[in-house]
Fold this sequence. Notes:
The complex is a heterotetramer, with 2 copies of chain A and 2 copies of chain C. Chain A is 34% helix and 14% strand. Chain A is α/β, with parallel strands linked by helices. Chain A has 2 domains: 54-65 and 332-424, Aspartate Aminotransferase, domain 1; 69-325, Aspartate Aminotransferase, domain 2 (3-Layer(aba) Sandwich). A 7-stranded mixed beta sheet of chain A has the order 2-8-7-6-5-3-4, sandwiched between helices. In chain A, strands 11-14-13 form a 3-stranded antiparallel beta sheet, with no helix packed on it. Chain A has a two-stranded parallel ribbon with strand order 1-12. The longest helix of chain A has 34 residues, at 317-350. The radius of gyration of chain A is 24 Å and the shape is globular. Chain A starts with a helix and ends in a 7-residue tail after the last helix. By secondary structure, chain C is of the alpha/beta class. Chain C has helices at 16-19, 39-43, 60-71, 95-100, 103-106, 118-135, 147-164, 181-188, 206-212, 235-244, 277-280, 337-373, 394-397, 403-412, 440-459, 461-465, 478-483, 492-495, and strands spanning 5-11, 139-141, 171-175, 192-196, 217-223, 248-252, 272-274, 295-297, 309-313, 316-320, 378-379, 389-392, 419-420, 429-432. Chains in contact: A-B, A-C, A-D, B-C, B-D, C-D. β1 of chain C pairs antiparallel with β1 (5-11) of chain D. The complex binds pyridoxal-5'-phosphate (2 copies). One pyridoxal-5'-phosphate (PLP) binds next to α7 of chain D.
Amino acid sequence: MLDAIGVQAIEDLFRQLPPEVRFHGALNLPAGKSEYEIVDYFRARGAEGANGYASFLGAGVYNHYRPVLVDTVVSRGEFLTSYTPYQAEISQGILTSIFEFQTMVCQLTGMDAANASMYDGSTATPEAAMMAARITGRDRVLVARSVHPEYREVLRTYTQHQGIPVEEFAYDPGSGRIDADDLQRRLDDNTAAVIVQSPNFFGIVENIREAAAIAHKKGALLVDVFTEAVALGLIEPPSDADIVAGELQSFAISPSYGGPFAGVIATKQTYIRQMPGRLVGQTKDAQGNRAFCLTLATREQHIRREKATSNICTNQALIALMATVFMAVYGKEGLRELAVQNLSKARYLANRLPLRFRAPFFNEFVVSANGRSPEEINATLLGRKIIGGLPLGRYYPELDGCMLLCCTEMSKREHMDAVADAFGADSSK
Amino acid sequence: MLDAIGVQAIEDLFRQLPPEVRFHGALNLPAGKSEYEIVDYFRARGAEGANGYASFLGAGVYNHYRPVLVDTVVSRGEFLTSYTPYQAEISQGILTSIFEFQTMVCQLTGMDAANASMYDGSTATPEAAMMAARITGRDRVLVARSVHPEYREVLRTYTQHQGIPVEEFAYDPGSGRIDADDLQRRLDDNTAAVIVQSPNFFGIVENIREAAAIAHKKGALLVDVFTEAVALGLIEPPSDADIVAGELQSFAISPSYGGPFAGVIATKQTYIRQMPGRLVGQTKDAQGNRAFCLTLATREQHIRREKATSNICTNQALIALMATVFMAVYGKEGLRELAVQNLSKARYLANRLPLRFRAPFFNEFVVSANGRSPEEINATLLGRKIIGGLPLGRYYPELDGCMLLCCTEMSKREHMDAVADAFGADSSK
Amino acid sequence: MIRKVRTHINQNEPLLFERSSPGKKGYQLPELDVPAVDPVDALGPENTRDEIPGFPEVSEVDVIRHFTRLSTWNYAIDLGLYPLGSCTMKYNPRINEVVARIEGLAWAHPYQPEALSQGAMEIIAALEAALAEITGMHAVTLQPAAGAHGELTGILLTRALLASRGNPRKKILVPDSAHGTNPATATMAGYSVENIKSNDRGMIDVESLRRAVNEDVAALMVTNPNTVGVFEEEITRIAAILHEKGALVYMDGANMNALVGVARPGDFGVDVMHLNLHKTFSTPHGGGGPGSGAVAVTRELEPFLPAPRLKRAGGSWTWNYDLPQTIGRVRAYYGNFGVLVRALAYIMAHGAEGLRKATLDAVLNANYIRKLIEPYYQIAYDAPSMHECVFSDDRQAARGVRTGDIAKRLIDYGFHPYTVSFPLIVRGALMIEPTETEGKQELDLFCDALISIAREVEENPEIVLKAPHSTRTSRVDEVTAARKPIVRWKPESEAAQAPAEAITPATERAGP
Amino acid sequence: MIRKVRTHINQNEPLLFERSSPGKKGYQLPELDVPAVDPVDALGPENTRDEIPGFPEVSEVDVIRHFTRLSTWNYAIDLGLYPLGSCTMKYNPRINEVVARIEGLAWAHPYQPEALSQGAMEIIAALEAALAEITGMHAVTLQPAAGAHGELTGILLTRALLASRGNPRKKILVPDSAHGTNPATATMAGYSVENIKSNDRGMIDVESLRRAVNEDVAALMVTNPNTVGVFEEEITRIAAILHEKGALVYMDGANMNALVGVARPGDFGVDVMHLNLHKTFSTPHGGGGPGSGAVAVTRELEPFLPAPRLKRAGGSWTWNYDLPQTIGRVRAYYGNFGVLVRALAYIMAHGAEGLRKATLDAVLNANYIRKLIEPYYQIAYDAPSMHECVFSDDRQAARGVRTGDIAKRLIDYGFHPYTVSFPLIVRGALMIEPTETEGKQELDLFCDALISIAREVEENPEIVLKAPHSTRTSRVDEVTAARKPIVRWKPESEAAQAPAEAITPATERAGP
Ligand SMILES: Cc1ncc(COP(=O)(O)O)c(C=O)c1O
Ligand SMILES: Cc1ncc(COP(=O)(O)O)c(C=O)c1O
């Protein structure tokens, strides 16, 4: 090959690099390792983790069973090692699956259109806010305090330099739902979006219809955020929202210390052109066969550059495919049954603990630690190889002494009983 | 569908079964379980196993690293869920890979033809003996005592009712190789086959050339058995044998409590028609393209019925594919390097222990327990999460007090040191 | 009209050997933590080989592309209906692949201490118990590696029992419809074979059988449902005839997918039988194997089962080698354990009710196909079909088109063909077994395809005779392959000199 | 002559929704070990939905066939060369998929106690350190989820630093050759964009740059090697110009595959940069993602990195949230951890020398292609190519054939096309990046294909204009898709009423 190119050594191909630019040392990294050693290393790291612990953590990342078919599908090289389907004629596989993903997200959320994926729920949220700002021509955003605290942090990072002030509004300390009065008070004619989450960070199902009505009265859009997609199998879909920004981690995506996950944005037909991210559309090929391709690319950075709806390029396609396979496996009946199991497990444990809020919840709930500190309870549980709930004081000073617990279909009764015991609850109840 | 068929209920399709034949109860088996519960059950069974133990067991089943590509390939549905390639036009994938398998087995063994696989080495051995009987028209078989004891048992089970008496001949108690004199003494004009194993059950490399010369002098065929295929990367190929019957477990096939493995039979061109099992051959399609298909089927049960060379039908194709991928991954250099690592590890440990035999060995060797019982040493090692060697007294009363140890590229120095320590060897040596 | 497939580009790929270039490698070994040994020093020059001529030298990406490309040339259950009669090509749940790879199972050494093998032994015991329950038999061995291996085991058991009664006897009766492994097995077990004719309903002719049974007969090997997919309605009478003369009934259980939960061989006089776990219990066929040929026996035969046997002692499992009457081992270690894990997982997933439902659906699907295509193809026998239906190519043969041609044409329609030319008692057999895991959509497409081909045979037989037309490899010349067998790759120079052999080509028979 | 592919049957497959039939299911849940709750009781009727209209109802085998069939319609690295310029489509080692699924890692919850997360934290720390070493930068954040996200993070860091100095400034300079994410990012970070012209060697015109740099400029976003595959030889002078005016140099590290082990951005004046771990460090592209956009910075920028940061305390890792100057989070939790595991495994497998060798081979391969096809296609710039080479369709356009047509024709030859029509400064660009993991055989086939197409353009342009001819889906009508967008399936009755939209179609640009 060197002969064909006409150079003596590969090094000659780097002659254009000025000498002061060249790195002449050797990188200070260990020598290459064999597969066997690499597996050993990562297993050792994994063994430092929580293998064999039961867990009651949720808070945006849920411990659901991953059907085996999911990895069967995403491990196929044709999905794993392809890229964004620019060339439709040899990408119909991924294009079709994305079209199905978009459709199922619409069916779940009651929206008309969903994109091919966002990085995750936390980045989908500010993208939704910015989208609302573009649509309304307004530049103020109200976000409920019951939205995931880290999502709100990301929202602030994204919006702060775009002249989009973000203001928070309160939740009702009794019900745990948004404080509609506070929202109404803060809404003004320059508010682009009202952001709520349902089920919210406390696990409580919000009344989206009511929130939307309030927002719409002032001409603002309602953005509904979700972190627990399984809830969508059972709770009323947020059809009254204008934009839905969600996280699909619950759909066969392993917690993986926080990522990769798959976010999504869905919206009404009229707002399609303001959506960020890739979108797959249906069309025909030269023979008249149904075919799919990337579409409405004029929204995107590679065409529109500084005027694009977002800078997103690479998304989370393979992870969205996991969610797609998950939805196909569970299907209509299964997703509901799964949601009912989650609901039932959460009720079982919640029934034995002092609930902090009154409104209906899905599979997470806030309990107060009966005067003991959540950390103390968690320490007791850890000793029994159980990871307890998330202490909320750090995120909500007013909820110091409370923790957020999550039960899923994976929660075993014996472990739930152990949690109840650790709270000193009456286990015969 | 019932309507189309013209019945009321599926049950009606079973009306031809006489009532006394019908099973009217319910099978006494638990109700169907979810994936999650099934994984749980088998994990619990696995956890009762030897997870986390180092092991020095060999004796026909070896602890070699399985390159990740192996499962990547065999997990593809196109390989996993197809069957015997009867229909060549839609089976070129598996046919081509079998042709490659056959070729590589020939390259390793110095034979001209290899079949597509046998159940395992232990059944390939009697099939080779029976093949030799067919070829020679003789009906007596001599087998070295240094052949795997369980292989010899299977040999006896297979041959006993076919009028093929099996007689054993001795190994040299000093070298551990076959006792050539004893072999010569027992050979007669009715001997169809002499069966030796190399490396033999004690890990010792036999002199196949010499054994073949002895057998051939009396018109018998030499059958060479192997259980440790990695050795073939380094030791002289058994080209002087007439039939090679081997086990490829070492080639990326997990020990799996003894199976599934992949046996193989290879032979000289002239004996092809007496081979048992499937065989893939090269040909052309109607367009003149190279193509592969099952061939010489007239040897087989589905054509020849009671006159077939064997009754084998289903073989171990997917497991043979694992071996094929393994050979491709390691290749020419890699297989040698792997063999050298095995040799080096075995030498490291053997150098510190009292060897029972003198002749050169590959990665297994027999040591005497220095007056202590092998069981006692193994018990000490078990306490350190090390599974020691195989006590030989059960198989060879004269080797009571000895054990067979195996080192592979997976054996870590620290564990080898621990074994040496358990023998009370000088660990500073 | 072909509705199920289109054509698409498909990558070519040379053989590994043709892809090789010197020095390429796809592996990396750990650094050696002990001194490297010089092989010639350690083994002696006479024991040390030179490099392996022609062995592959390829990179990791070469390997993955090679096998990925190859895989795309295969048809598979994961791609569609695979109606190979007698092979029970049902869907293979992927959970089974996962559990078989669990570390403590996949990496269990057969000689590791029993105290560290209780999990594996428990799995074997649980599967033995489940299969005994399903078959209604007394005991089960899981040592045989496939159906044919199970047959050999079963006939050796028969021989051992009869020998213990004083006379192993001389022959095995085999219906003319039997699978080739049956007579081949009898020979391997040292018996001669006597064929029994089938009657015009596709069943064993009881009178012929009665005439054939005498004190020389060791056993009858009966497949039930038999290979024409028909239940042997006289099975209890048949068993009585054998038993009366002191002979045994061996049942080839390859077709057990028609019976699980509905009838138990132990209840209709069977003494010994095998099951193909890779068929009825869905362990994947893997391009030809591995399988498992579990053998189930009556109480009387149990003492003869291959050693070792599991025994419960002191609250744990142990391997019992002290079996004075055993026929001996038929395989090293304990059987195709990884396959057993999968079969048990399958049984657990289904449960009693699920297994029974699978049987019903398998029979439903076969009868649906039969009904839809019976107007176009000659059914082999009028008798009711169980899990498969067998047709003859009689009508098509009149136009010069044989079952093998129809099979090839089915490929163009996007299906794997049925089993061709088996059983032998049917002229030009089309043997179709859909299994229960197929849905109506796929079955309808399949029937449409067969109907369409029947029309093509009338209107344009050439298109069928030259099929397949849409595959990357057109019709393969099997005759040349057999005449001048090339069974390994050689560098071109060497390959030119390969010797020719005069061998009669195999019949067109394909599968199972 | 097309040597790399033939055509083969390929299964059709409807959408999941079209495959559904009521009551079919592919799942089984464990039995509930607590009392089942009635959702309407628990949530209230107003909060409980009806069934999900149109949601799939399919069996397990339906699911596996559906996605297996779909997968066969995709091209992929596992099938062959995927020379999408700027995307670094290298082979993805499968070991990385294995380690990312190790239980203690894949099932680690981001909020689990730090004492139980040390392994995951160690991996993050090790990767941060390795990337700092490779880039020659001081500190690294792994929070960003992809390149564009890294860009946003980097520009926000720039803004924070400048703001801390008193003035965040107003604009970002972006060369006209830059990737679209660069200007889009600048906008998202609240900056205006000023384009910088490239000179006739494809590099930043230093004089134009000097004129553009003033106290309003926050940073230059430079890609190096740039998007025409050319190293910005004046990079140190460029950096000096920016620094002199108090502005920063942001480097888009998408092309770092040309530099690893050979040059370090920290040594040539870069203040902040991102790496695409899914490109240079081979975490699989997965049909569009996930990726990871690690950002590396100088010491000066470190205090502004997104919270939290890893900190060593008392012999173990802890997450430090006490970062007064942080720009805040750019993502929940700690980044695409599973992708980070894969990248670290890649770095470990290669080691220092292997990484450097990969760089050399990547550049070698690109130059080899350039050399072979330069006689047939117009190279965009004379300057030496690094890891990719960019051509213009000028010669072919004269015959009415554009880069997009050549790309489609390449499909018939068995290849995924190069990146089409990017960068924008090249008329009708063909942007070709082979990566180091391709062997000579595949490269030769690719060059032959391009040369053959060049001849077809002369002799028979129609065949190129109408390509592809051999795919299951022929040329796809993207214009109609954009004009009347149908972005979700609906039952046929509803679908008929979908509203039309007048939208200008995208340009023919495809990739990266
Ligand atoms: C009826 C029948 N009997 C026996 C066998 C042999 O089983 P195996 O292939 O598992 O050895 C088969 C399988 O092909 C069969 O169909
Ligand atoms: C030069 C360049 N910059 C930036 C990006 C954006 O990276 P990502 O797709 O990871 O967001 C890309 C990738 O497509 C690129 O090629």
